[in-house]
TrEMBL record, chain A:
It is found in: Cytoplasm. Pfam families: DHO_dh. This is Unannotated protein. The keyword Cytoplasm applies. Belongs to the dihydroorotate dehydrogenase family. Type 1 subfamily. One of its GO terms (cellular component) is cytoplasm. Residues 5-290 form the Dihydroorotate dehydrogenase catalytic domain. Pathway: Pyrimidine metabolism; UMP biosynthesis via de novo pathway. One of its GO terms (biological process) is 'de novo' pyrimidine nucleobase biosynthetic process. GO terms for molecular function: dihydroorotate dehydrogenase activity. Keywords: Cytoplasm, Flavoprotein, FMN, Oxidoreductase, Pyrimidine biosynthesis. The lineage of its organism: unclassified sequences, metagenomes, ecological metagenomes. PANTHER family: DIHYDROOROTATE DEHYDROGENASE (FUMARATE), DIHYDROOROTATE DEHYDROGENASE (QUINONE), MITOCHONDRIAL-RELATED.
TrEMBL record, chain B:
Its cofactor is [2Fe-2S] cluster. GO terms for biological process: pyrimidine nucleotide biosynthetic process. It comes from freshwater metagenome. InterPro entries: Cyt_c3_hydrogenase_gsu, Dihydroorotate_DH_ele_sf, Dihydroorotate_DH_Fe-S-bd, FAD-bd_FR_type, FNR_nucleotide-bd, PyrK_electron_transfer, Riboflavin_synthase-like_b-brl. This is Unannotated protein. One of its GO terms (molecular function) is oxidoreductase activity. It holds the Pfam family DHODB_Fe-S_bind. CDD domains: DHOD_e_trans (cd06218).
Length: 311, 282
């Protein structure tokens, strides 16, 4: 008997629990050669903004121990070209689609939500309020409780009650539970934990910051314990709020760790750079590990690390 | 854009030969029948460091030559300079090692449909993929002249067997330790002035590619260059290896050197904008 791997994020149902991570799958076409996109939970697209955007100057990446820094700066085609080209293609492949959006202002998030409201076939919207690669760190809405509330509240009002909102949070805060509660109060149905951590590498040849954008987001297995901790803390505080977990997942073992901490689904990000088949590989390994531990469904394992032992 | 990476295969390839050649390593991998999909200019992405490696990203190397004959059915050759921790690991692998690779990746060099005068310019070990290209151009009846340059003799890569595929080969080193003292741009200027070149194929450091593009600007000479930008993924998903490139209408956008390149039209690459913040298109 094969295990039930289905999961939900708010009102959105997914037949499988492994997703791509925003910014680590472009818009899906590049990965289609390596595995059928409809076999994973959903493709989470690269965060899209209103206008086409060139992004930050090169160099944009630096490998670090068990991880990497990136400084892309949300390069993308803009929402209109994205909706005309990328979303229809993904739906043709029968892939489920979570569209990630990013804005420079509260109003930009709402206007992006307005464009998405009318698009059929989208499973959910990820509201990326935590991209570290913006010129003004004040724009990282997820580091400011009032700004985080204002963005999610604006998107919720614009969308109405239909499409689930997944708020993507930054681990670069003193108290992630506080921010998580605020965005849930504002209308988020689920949380994406965690975005990258802000970091820097200095090049010893030039003796200056290596990245063109100076700072970048740290990702990869190096940050996985941070993700596990954030998911565990937030799930403990709000066990009914679904979490899409991410941060250094490269194997089924890593995915199971995040699920036991409280994630309802898991995104594979940086691991796809090293192995474009990583999402489907992680999903297969996760199914085997759940079965080996006697779980009949993924749902039974969500937050299992929090259980109270009873006689 | 569908069909991106359409020939790419993930596979475990056996390292059948690992030889030191000057400052470089010549590595030959058994990849079997898929070698028939490989074209000059394609590259391979290699996982480095083994299963428990702290190096999470693949390393991209130009495929220098392929063979579809012999004991293994199909092999590819890569020339690697052991400069960083990943390339040093790769060069230290013994023959018989199993190597995790994805290939072929990237846009190859365009091959002319009729015989032309082709000039192949290689900087350092950037010459490696040009020898496989030279064989194909020669088979198509092209005249193939090759110019190689480097700072010093030890950094010139020019294998004996490769020399058979070219009509002429000239070598330039900045310190004069091999061939003529000077840079590859000096003879290119002369050949262009003499109308001896229809197409330039180049591979090497970005400064060399930029200099050749300046020489071919406002001429009818096509310049196909294989660019070099650091890549995290090699398959088009990370957006780190981008370069400013104009389209036919002159609109400049950031193109990925992995899937839109590595071979690009040197006349369209905006060399002066590399590493800059691009102005917003109106």
């Amino acid at each position: 008997m094969s295990i039930d791997l289905s999961t939900t994020l708010g009102s959105a149902w997914f037949p499988a629990p492994v997703f791509t991570a925003s910014g680590c799958a472009s818009s899906g076409k590049e990965l289609a050669q390596f595995f059928p996109l409809q076999e994973i939970g959903a493709v989470v697209t690269k965060s899209i903004m209103t206008k086409a955007r060139h992004g930050r100057p090169t160099p944009r990446m630096a490998e670090t121990p068990s991880g990497m820094l990136n400084s892309i700066g949300l390069q993308g085609p803009g929402i209109d070209a994205f909706l005309a080209n990328d979303v229809p293609w993904l739906l043709e492949q029968k892939a489920r689609v979570i569209v990630s959006i990013a804005g420079e202002t509260v109003e930009e998030y709402s206007s992006l939500a307005r464009k998405l409201r009318a698009v059929p076939g989208i499973s959910a919207i990820e509201v990326n309020i935590s991209c570290p690669n913006v010129e003004n760190r004040g724009l990282v809405f997820a580091c400011d409780p009032d700004a985080a509330h204002a963005v999610i509240d604006g998107v919720r009002r614009t969308l109405g009650g239909e499409l689930p909102i997944i708020a993507k949070l930054s681990p670069d805060v003193t108290n992630i539970v506080e921010i998580a509660k605020i965005v849930v109060d504002a209308g988020a149905d689920a949380l994406a934990l965690i975005n990258t951590l802000l970091g820097m590498v200095i090049n010893l040849d030039t003796m200056r910051p290596h990245l063109g954008g100076k700072t970048g987001g740290l990702s990869g297995p190096a940050i996985r314990p941070v993700a596990v901790r954030a998911i565990y803390q937030v799930h403990a505080a709000m066990p009914k709020v679904p979490i899409l977990g991410m941060g250094g997942v490269a194997t089924g073992r890593d995915a199971l760790e995040l699920i036991l901490a409280g994630a309802s689904g898991v995104s594979v990000g940086t691991a796809s750079f090293g192995n474009p088949e990583a999402p489907i590989k992680v999903q297969r390994e996760l199914a085997e590990l759940l079965t080996a531990r006697g779980f009949n469904s993924l749902r039974e394992a969500i937050g299992f690390a929090h259980r109270v032992e009873s006689q | 854009m569908a069909g991106i990476n359409r020939h790419a295969k993930t596979m475990v390839a056996t390292l059948v030969s690992n030889k030191r050649v000057g400052q470089y390593h010549q590595l030959i991998l058994d990849v079997g029948g898929v070698v028939n999909d490989f074209r000059p200019g394609n590259f391979v992405a290699v996982a480095v460091g083994g299963d428990r490696s702290s190096m999470v990203l693949r390393r991209a190397f130009a495929i220098s030559r392929i063979s579809d004959r012999g004991a293994y059915g199909g092999t590819m050759e890569i020339i690697v300079a052991p400069h960083g921790s990943g390339s040093r690991w790769f060069c230290a692998q013994p023959e018989g090692s199993e190597i995790d690779v994805i290939a072929p990746l990237g846009q190859p060099f365009g091959i002319p449909t009729h015989p032309v005068n082709a000039l192949l310019v290689g900087g350092g070990y950037g010459s490696a993929p040009l020898f496989g290209l030279a064989e194909i151009l020669k088979d198509r009846g092209c005249t193939v002249d090759m110019i190689l340059g480097a700072s010093t003799a030890g950094k010139i890569y020019a294998p004996l067997e490769g020399k058979r595929a070219v009509n002429t080969l000239r070598i330039f080193t900045e310190d004069g330790s091999m061939g003529t003292a000077g840079r590859v741009t000096d003879p290119i200027t002369e050949l262009l002035a003499a109308n001896r070149v229809d197409v330039i194929y180049s591979c090497g450091p970005m400064g060399m590619l930029k200099a050749i593009s300046a020489l071919t600007a406002n001429t009818d000479v096509v310049h196909q260059c294989a660019v070099e930008e650091s890549m995290a993924c090699g398959v088009g998903i990370c957006m780190t290896c981008v370069l400013p490139v104009a389209d036919e209408a002159g609109v400049v956008t950031m193109k990925r050197s992995c899937i839109d390149g590595p071979v690009m039209d040197g006349a369209l690459v905006q060399w002066d904008l590399v590493g800059q913040v691009l102005p917003v298109n109106e």
